[in-house]
Write a structure and sequence with these properties.
The complex is a heterodimer. Chain A is an all-alpha fold. Chain A has 18 helices and no strands. Chain A has helices spanning 9-15, 29-33, 46-53, 57-62, 74-78, 85-100, 105-111, 113-134, 145-148, 151-180, 191-196, 198-207, 219-242, 244-247, 258-283, 294-319, 322-346, 351-384. In chain A, helix 10 (151-180) runs parallel beside helix 18 and helix 15 (258-283) packs antiparallel against helix 16. Chain A starts with 8 loop residues before the first helix and ends with a helix. Helices cover 24% and strands 25% of the residues of chain B. By secondary structure, chain B is α/β, with parallel strands linked by helices. Chain B has helices spanning 20-31, 62-75, 118-122, 165-169, 219-226, 269-283, 303-312, 409-445, and strands at 8-16, 36-39, 54-55, 60-61, 79-82, 85-93, 96-103, 126-128, 137-139, 141-143, 153-155, 182-193, 197-199, 216-217, 246-250, 288-293, 316-319, 322-328, 332-338, 347-352, 354-357, 361-363, 397-399. In chain B, strands 1, 2, 5, 6, 7, 12 and 23 form a 7-stranded mixed β-sheet that branches. Chain B has a 5-stranded parallel β-sheet with strand order 14-21-15-16-17. In chain B, strands 18-19-20 form a 3-stranded antiparallel β-sheet, with no helix packed on it. Chain B folds into 3 domains: 8-104 and 181-196 and 364-433, FAD/NAD(P)-binding domain, CATH 3.50.50.60; 119-177, no CATH class; 201-361, FAD/NAD(P)-binding domain (3-Layer(bba) Sandwich), CATH 3.50.50.60. Chain B is globular and about 90 Å long. Classes of the chains: A mainly alpha, B alpha/beta. Chain A binds chain B through residues 23, 25-29, 31-33, 37-38, 41-43, 46, 78-82, and chain B through 207, 252, 256-260, 294-295, 320-321, 323-324, 336-340, 342-347.
Chain lengths: 385, 446
């Protein structure tokens, strides 16, 4: 029973959106219902709730189990105590995200919507300020976006931002790895295993294929919508981070040229799922959308606005409206940048790292266990002989 | 005060329910000299307890300890039994309560019937026996069960073909095909509600999809299977008569479950499951018996020891609530459960020949529509005064046993005694007031 004990852990998790955690009688109905449970080696999700109820904070931080859950809601539907295990798993993921983040900002943003909105506004104003101070000449007789906002300067900003965000996200990933693999045991795992398992990370980053195993409630459809969203997001990331010089041009290519087509695809892939998810959350159509925290809404709204303003830049540019293009471009970046800065390392978006990483770490753990067992067997035979 | 007609009478107390609690209250009041009427909707008094095989934790034979009480009540000069009778209304008034009851038609003249059962032997129409939980069959005219009290035949008009075989068999011409139900009024100073409980449906949880399977049985059915004079005289599973080799008890199958509207604990299931498991291991020594439970609530006197004995006997206790039950190969059952105390591979599917669902206890009777008695959020009669647990919201109406909430036999009997005590105190206070009023009036006249 080593590790940190926190008698108020269940209150902490309630602060992150947990519901009725105290109602749970640990009957195990959820475990039996949950199709992901066998991957946990036993007891998921009941044991996570047990850890919370008994205040075993260290053990909760050391477990990857909450990341198994894709929220089909079957456990909540079947729970005889209406203790809402699915929402407890969701809240645990928020809690863990906050714990992985060493700055404390994630905790602040999850617990206070005001703080999160304020941070977004501040970063947004900062970006607007940068444009007000340093924008290039505004050509008004035709659209010259690259004169107003030179692509190499924007690209530089992109890369600075990417570096900063990656730093925080990787720091969180490091803490997650450090805790879950065992703070000391980690070094006993062969580096080869870490390398061998790397493909697992990318397979799950790009496909989220484990989701398909999840329970009964339209999981397949939700997985496809999510996959569409991910493809849109990754497309946009590629276009604005790596291919910006090719994407942000003043020459207007015919619409079937790849930089335009890809952009349109990405826009639709962002807009359709975000609108769909917002409607579902509003109407509480699916179990996962029964309870919405402020962080869920902020994430969806910001993503939607980013895609919307992005496509408006395109419309005004193609439509030949110089002033409108410049204005909406500034607005677009004043939404996109704060969204990325706040959401990616410190809020909901961090799951782009933690979700595949958790599957990767599971893989590492299992491979290490197998390797240890293989190493132990000959030794025990020798003893027997 | 004075009965004016045949269908109107005065009693000191009316007890609603002739189960163990009602009988205890009736006996306690009658022994103090009060005139008591016991209203019972079934053809015999004895309630649930008379249908049980044995009682925990002493393993006394239930019939052997219930029958003397039934008999004592039946022979008590101060007790009148109104069996096969339903309560229509209870109306409180300044001079006590007016209880209107309907004596359902038994189609047998109770004064003439001598309980010889010749009608039952003559009858050739059979239907499933409620007393045996539908396992055995019973004739359309019959005495309710072997040790029923009163030993009077009852004709079930729903099944009777009016063939007249019984008419010819009856030596006392007791059978009256044209008997009609009749309403009677009882004026009583106090009423004790001892209307008991029923179990919620086996099929109440959609997750237990196999509950339709004949081999998923009610604990009351198992009581009959275990009773020496039960339907088969031995334990066989209902679907095919196989001697079950593996029996599962699924606890909390109808209680402690918000999703089916019974959030409370039924309090008796742990103990009767343990008792039944013990009895089963006596009658089926080679069978595997598993009890799936959330926690064992062995709170009464001698209960914990009883539980420990069961564990020592080799009954398999598994901590985990069964989440699903499926049928396999038509007759067998598969329970899905997490072995919550196992570190690895804890989710298992176990196959059993027979499954006993611990159904939840819910009230048998809801008096709110025809009486001022209020019920609590759980549906049981409300007892607003926490230091007087037998009193309802109406002065002079008391409650005893499982009518007030899930309760086992020992607690029901204790509470029935307490209710009788409260009722007796209320009655003597009224008598005293009456006396004082009369004295004052006499003085005024003088």
């Amino acid at each position: 029973m080593a590790g940190k004990f926190n008698p108020d852990l269940h209150l902490d998790i309630t602060g992150f959106g947990g519901k009725d955690i105290d109602m749970c009688m640990n009957c195990g109905t959820c475990t039996t219902i949950c199709p992901m449970s066998e991957d946990s080696g036993g007891g998921f999700p009941r044991r996570v709730i047990r850890l919370i109820q008994t205040g075993q904070q260290s053990k909760l931080e050391e477990t990857l189990d909450p990341w198994l859950c894709y929220y089909c809601g079957d456990c909540t539907t079947n729970c005889p105590r209406q203790a809402n295990p699915a929402e407890t798993m969701m809240a645990s993921r928020r809690y863990l995200t906050a714990r992985y983040d060493f700055t404390g900002l994630a905790k602040l943003f999850y617990k206070s919507a005001v703080a999160e909105i304020l941070a977004i506004i501040l970063v947004g104003l900062f970006v607007t300020g940068l444009f007000v101070a340093f924008h290039g000449p505004m050509v008004l007789n035709k659209v010259e976006l690259n004169t107003f906002a030179p692509v190499h300067a924007v690209e530089l900003g992109d890369w600075i931002m990417a570096a900063v965000l990656s730093f925080f996200l990787l720091a969180g990933a490091a803490r997650m790895t450090w805790w879950t693999l065992g703070r000391k045991k980690m070094f006993r795992i062969s580096p080869l295993i870490f390398i061998q398992q790397i493909p697992v990370f990318f397979v799950h980053l790009f496909t989220q294929k484990r989701w398909k195993k999840c329970g009964s409630h339209h999981s397949g459809i939700r997985w496809m919508k999510h996959l569409l969203l991910v493809s849109g997001y990754l497309s946009m990331l590629t276009l604005v981070l790596i291919l910006l010089r090719w994407f942000q041009t003043d020459k207007i290519y015919p619409f079937y040229y790849p930089q335009r087509l890809w952009g349109y695809y990405a826009t639709i892939a962002l807009l359709y799922p975000t609108v769909d998810f917002m409607i579902s959350r509003w109407r509480r159509k699916e179990p996962i959308h029964l309870f919405s925290e402020a962080s869920d809404w902020i994430f969806l709204v910001m993503l939607f606005l980013t895609a919307l303003t992005g496509i408006m830049v395109n419309i005004f540019r193609v439509g030949g409206l110089p002033m409108a293009t410049y204005l909406i471009y500034v607005i677009h970046l004043s939404i996109a940048v704060p969204m990325l800065v706040v959401e990616v390392p410190f809020s909901k978006w961090s799951h782009i790292m933690y979700r595949p990483l958790s599957i990767y770490l599971y893989g590492v753990k299992q491979a290490a266990t197998r390797a240890n067992r293989a190493a132990d067997e000959p030794a025990s035979e020798k003893v027997a002989a | 005060m004075i009965a004016t007609a045949d269908n109107e009478r005065h009693k000191d107390a009316v007890i609603i329910g002739g189960g163990i609690a009602g009988l205890q209250s009736a006996l306690d009041l009658a022994d103090q000299g009060y005139k008591v009427a016991v209203v019972e909707r079934q053809a015999s008094i004895g309630g649930r307890m008379i249908s049980l095989s044995k009682v925990y934790p002493t393993l006394d034979c239930a019939s052997c300890i219930t029958t003397p009480k039934m008999s004592a009540a039946a022979h008590h000069e101060n007790i009148e039994l109104l069996t096969y009778t339903e309560v229509d209304s209870i109306t409180p008034g300044p001079n006590g309560h007016t209880v209107v009851v309907t004596r359902k038609a038994t189609h047998v003249n109770a004064d003439k019937c001598i309980g010889c059962r010749l009608c039952e032997y003559a009858c050739d129409t059979e239907y499933p026996d409620d007393f045996e939980q539908g396992l055995g069959s019973v004739r359309a005219i019959s005495v309710a069960f072997t040790n029923a009290i009163p030993q009077k035949a009852v004709l079930d008009a729903d099944y009777c073909l009016a063939c007249g075989l019984c008419l010819r068999a009856c030596p006392t011409d007791a059978i009256e095909f044209d008997q009609q139900p009749r309403q009677e009024t009882i004026h009583a100073d106090v009423v004790i509600v001892a209307s008991g409980f029923q179990l919620n449906a086996l099929t109440i949880k959609p997750q237990y999809s196999a509950a339709q399977n004949q081999n998923v049985i009610s604990p009351l059915t198992l009581e009959r299977l275990l009773a020496p004079h039960g339907p088969y005289g031995r334990v066989l599973r209902p679907s095919d008569g196989k001697i079950p080799e593996s029996i599962a008890f699924v606890q909390c199958a109808g209680s402690r479950d918000q999703s089916i509207g019974v959030p409370y604990c039924s309090r008796v299931c742990c103990m009767y499951a343990i008792k039944q498991a013990m009895l089963l291991s006596g009658s089926l020594p080679t069978a595997d018996i598993t009890i799936y439970y959330m926690d064992i609530r062995a709170f009464g006197k001698g209960y914990e020891q009883f539980y420990q004995n069961a564990k020592a006997m080799g009954i398999n206790f598994v901590r985990g609530k069964v989440s699903k039950i499926d049928s396999v190969d038509k007759d067998d059952l598969l329970v899905h459960v997490e072995y919550t105390e196992e570190p690895q591979d804890c989710v298992r599917k176990q196959r059993h020949d027979m499954v006993v669902l611990a159904q939840g206890m819910i009230p048998q009777w809801n008096p709110t529509s025809f009486s001022p008695v209020q019920i609590g959020s759980d549906g049981f009669v409300a007892t607003p005064d926490s230091v007087s647990p037998c009193t309802t919201n109406v002065p002079g109406i008391f409650v005893a046993g499982a009518a007030a909430g899930p309760k086992d036999i020992v607690d029901s009997i204790a509470e029935a005694g307490a209710a009788a005590m409260e009722a007796g105190r209320y009655l003597s206070k009224r008598a005293h007031l009456d006396h004082t009023a009369r004295t004052v009036a006499l003085e005024l006249i003088a």
